[in-house]
Design a protein that fits this description.
The protein is an all-alpha fold. The chain has nine helices and no strands. The protein is elongated and about 105 Å long.
Length: about 250
């Protein structure tokens, strides 16, 4: 039982790893991919033995379970910043939005687990993790699309204003929702679940709208630049035609 719970505590990190990697996959060299896989694997193995040690020597608590998940996300975020360089604010935004999505997923899993019922905390954590993975797999395509739409299009362009305005939003909303319900709580009431869903949806909609508006603004800037270039081209062309006419006129006379 201890090995199974430790294994699931380790595997619960996979959703956040996948969602953080997806928006940057085209920016990562093959060498950096190998480095990421190495550090991801190493940290997950370490986390497995840490959870196993806690289960065998002490009692697994909700506080440890939540802190372990949170600290692992922070450590992986640091790894991403150090390996995938040049995108610090992008990684911070990715951390907040990914944490929010995973938090919502497993908040729903906790609520379903509570309704099904469990006898021990380990059994509850086991059921929650399995249900959470099922929900995550069903929602993965939508989660992946959301991460790509809000991050990937703005990696190749000068988007400093965009990231200055948006990077802190999901982080602030995630921590406000996390700390408002306490680190020692496991079960979620219907009102708590609704509160978390509303916080999550509001953050997702806000970030998505900002991304859409910024994309439209960039398109307008590009159109204006094209129009300005065409205007200058026609001015030069008109001047060339006028000069040619003057030369012909002078030649005739």
């Amino acid at each position: 039982m201890e090995i199974l719970v430790s294994l699931l505590c380790m595997l619960i990190h996979i959703p956040s790893l996948m969602l953080r990697y997806v928006p940057f996959k085209e920016k990562i060299s093959s060498k950096d991919k190998k480095r990421l896989i190495f550090w991801y694997s190493l940290t997950m193995i370490f986390d497995f033995f840490l959870c196993l040690w806690i289960l065998e020597t002490r009692n697994m608590t909700v506080t440890f379970y939540k802190l372990n998940t949170l600290l692992y996300c922070i450590i992986v975020g640091i790894v991403n910043v150090l390996i995938i360089k040049g995108y610090t604010k992008e990684h911070l935004f990715s951390f907040g939005l990914t944490a929010l999505l995973v938090w919502l997923t497993f908040a729903l899993a906790v609520y379903i687990t509570d309704k099904i019922g469990y006898t021990t905390l380990n059994q509850g954590l086991l059921m929650e993790t399995v249900i959470g993975f099922v929900i995550y797999l069903l929602s993965y395509r939508w989660y992946r699309s959301l991460m790509c739409r809000t991050i990937t299009p703005f990696l190749d362009i000068d988007s400093e204003d965009y990231w200055n305005n948006i990077w802190f939003i999901p982080i602030a909303m995630f921590f406000s929702g996390l700390f408002s319900h306490g680190m020692e709580e496991y079960t979620a009431t219907a009102m708590q679940l609704v509160s978390r869903i509303l916080i999550g949806l509001a953050t997702i909609v806000l970030c998505h709208r900002i991304a859409q508006d910024y994309r439209k603004m960039l398109e307008k800037v590009q159109i204006n630049q094209q129009l300005e270039m065409q205007k200058k081209y026609y001015e030069v062309l008109t001047e060339a035609v006028q000069n040619e006419r003057e030369v012909r006129h002078n030649f005739k006379h």
